Amino acid sequence: MKNMGNKAQIKVIENQHYIDKANKRNFEKYHLQRQMKLERDRIVHRWFWMLSLAFLGLVIIFCSFQVVNYKHRLYQVQQQEAVARKELAKEESKQAKLKQQVTQLKDMNYVEKIIRDKYNYTKKGETNYNLPN
């Protein structure tokens, strides 16, 4: 019986050995799967953050171009406004001179003076002498 006991004991030890081996294989398999999942998760997270940063960079670049474009257009409009203001001042000055001329032309003494000076017009009995300057 002792022999039987040893055989049973050996069988139990062998079974335990196989169970331990199976558990070790299962653990190694689980551990390997876990490591692969963690590595896959790291890669996914890395890609997520890289794509997020790339998208954010593109948004920033796009907004920067819009701001630069807006500032350039604003500068152009300001330049056009300055030119228009200069032209307006020039035209207002012209208009003031023309209004002054209109009021002067309504005065008969002024009109007579212009006609005499510009066209050498004389009244009856007057003599016109042209002298060199």
From TrEMBL:
Keywords: Coiled coil, Membrane, Transmembrane, Transmembrane helix. GO terms for biological process: cell division. InterPro entries: DivIC (IPR039076), FtsL/DivIC (IPR007060). The chain crosses the membrane at residues 47-68. Residues 81-108 form a coiled coil. PANTHER family: CELL DIVISION PROTEIN DIVIC. This is Cell division protein DIVIC. It comes from Ligilactobacillus equi DSM 15833 = JCM 10991. The lineage of its organism: Bacteria, Bacillati, Bacillota, Bacilli, Lactobacillales.
